[in-house]
Amino acid sequence: MLRRFLLLTLFLFITGCVQPSNKIGSTILHYSSKKVGYLVNVRAYPTHTHIGTTTLTNFTKNYPFGWKIPSYIEQQLDKRLKSFAGVYPVNLRKKGINSNEINNLIKNVNGTWMVARGKAEIYKKLTRQLGLSAIVIVNESEKQAIKDCGMLGCKEFKAKGYGLITRSFLNTNKFYSATAFYANVYKLHPLGSLNSQLTTINESKKMTLVAISKGSKVEPNKINFIYPQNFNKWTEQEFKPFRAPLIKYIDKMTQKIVEVVRDN
Fold first, then answer.
1. What's the predicted TM-score (pTM) here?
2. Of 53, 85, 146, 220, whose CB is crowded by the most CB atoms within 10 A?
3. Average pLDDT estimate for 222-251
4. What local confidence, expressed as pLDDT, does residue 25 receive?
């Protein structure tokens, strides 16, 4: 009886006091393992936003081109999160969760982060059912792209979606890569927003100029852009050059998001 008691005491001592190993198989974890959920709330097709010399010539047109941008962003987030030891990504779309449920999940009340009203159930699902320690949300929304300043002051113009934004004034046309994305990163244990570390994404007020034309004559450019036959109705081949700068931006954006997750 005494021997059994001593063995039990020794077992409890060992299991209760020894620090857990940092090794899983041959992999060394540099920090605590954590599951990170991500959701990409981005439309399937690119958009052309045009700002003309007058508001009467402005237009927005969506094109059903198979750029697969939502899935590309998902792949980049998943791949980059997996590159850090101990981080396990979870695609929330595949768990039946939509952006309306988790956008604005938390709010700051007098310096304290709290679950927002009406979000308690989804918070429980994220933490208790899925075991997440943080979530990442990438949203597409209209975003400032151009700021034109002259003798009469400055004007700001927004891209209505990702893809292309053009600005025409008199006979000059400027072509910008439209990167209309916002990112949110929320910590769930303890509650907190990491958006203050994403200002280069969320507070950017200009987009990259990639080509210029005088009328239909395009100046030399790095994306092999050729002026379209019909400016109001582009073919997929004519629109294609603007995918490359968009992908370049997405690569940098997802890298920044994942670095914020990693460092917190």
1. 0.86
2. 146
3. 98
4. 31
